[in-house]
Design brief:
Helix content is about 50%, strand content about 10%. By secondary structure, the chain is an alpha+beta fold. A four-stranded antiparallel β-sheet has the order 1-4-2-3. Helix 4 crosses helix 6.
Length: about 210
């Protein structure tokens, strides 16, 4: 009888231990599921907040404010793109692979600031202003962190138009006259992204 009681007690102990083990595993699975759900919800909130910020920036930025004078100019020399603009793609800055890059909103802000300064310094030839399709001069410049010119600006395109040389020379004078460009301190960390600029000077947008 004593042996039977011991066997029964051991069986009961094992049953209780197994039940407790199953309960513990169930709690651990539930806890893991709660953690995973919390992470998913947090990621969803972050994505929604990021989407909201992007939407707000898009609402605040009106492309029409500078779209008339700013367009990508990678091929401006050959296409004659009509805008006094800073190239916002390959010719804006040097990609080091590690330096911080301007986000679209900051890039547009900096483009607008630099363009406004250059336009204020440019004395456009009167004859070119009267033309419907005047020659466009593309000027490449290298800037120091304080906005001064590191090297002499260079005209990177050509045109058979007789007025092109006059437009190009006036664009170079404007670039030198405006130096040093006023670059707000907030853009200093992104120097590698704006130190090399290609600017198109179009008399129609002077």
């Amino acid at each position: 009888a004593e042996a039977a009681r011991r066997v029964a007690a051991e069986a009961e102990r094992q049953r209780v231990a197994q039940a407790q083990s199953r309960e513990r595993e169930a709690r651990e699975r539930a806890d893991a599921a709660r953690v995973a759900e919390a992470r998913r919800q947090e990621q969803q909130r972050e994505e929604e907040a990021r989407a909201s910020r992007i939407a707000e920036e898009a609402d605040r930025f009106d492309p029409s404010d500078i779209a008339s004078i700013l367009r990508t100019t990678e091929d401006a020399a050959s296409t004659g793109a009509a805008a006094a603009e800073i190239n916002r793609t390959a010719s804006l800055g040097t990609d080091t692979g590690t330096s911080p890059r301007l986000n679209p909103s900051m890039r547009d802000q900096l483009v607008g600031l630099i363009t406004a300064q250059l336009r204020s310094c440019w004395d456009v030839p009167i004859a070119a202003q009267a033309m419907q399709n005047p020659p466009v001069a593309a000027v490449r410049m290298a800037l120091a962190q304080d906005g001064s010119l590191v090297t002499e600006p260079q005209v990177t395109n050509t045109s058979p138009d007789p007025l092109f040389r006059s437009v190009a020379d006036s664009a170079l004078r404007a670039t030198r006259r405006c130096a040093p460009l006023q670059i707000p301190a907030q853009f200093a960390p992104y120097y590698e992204d704006w130190r090399n600029l290609t600017v198109n000077f179009n008399p129609l947008f002077s």
